[in-house]
Design goal:
Layout (H helix, E strand, L loop, with lengths): L4 E4 L3 H11 L5 E5 L2 E6 L5 H11 L1 H13 L8 H8 L10 H8 L1
Length: 105
């Protein structure tokens, strides 16, 4: 695993500008007195920004928590059962989708 780049918060102003100009290519950990404070993470795709916005939206987070409380793991209807009931065939994965999903992990 590649070591994360670290910068101290006191030095961050000019460093962050340099990262932005060059295009952030890897995660950067910003520290205060040697302790991690936050990370800067590059967005690799257009969808990444939308994913981030949705996943951090307080209303969406509250909705997900309510759903998890109402339907704990293993209590829902399996997708295969829904497909059988409605006569929906499972689609074969599109070419390149698995590779992109693995790359995102």
């Amino acid at each position: 695993m590649k070591a994360l780049k670290k910068i101290d918060l006191a030095d961050a102003v000019s460093s962050l500008a340099r990262y932005a100009e060059r295009g952030l290519k890897e995660r950067v950990v910003v520290t205060r007195r040697g302790k991690p404070v936050f990370t800067l993470t590059p967005l690799e795709q257009d969808e990444a920004w939308e994913d981030y916005r949705v996943s951090t939206d307080p209303k969406f987070v509250a909705l997900m928590k309510r759903s998890e409380a109402l339907y704990p793991p293993g209590t829902g209807i399996p997708l295969e059962e829904i497909r059988r009931k409605h006569g929906i065939k499972a689609r074969a994965p599109r070419r390149g989708v698995r590779r992109a999903a693995r790359k995102a992990r």
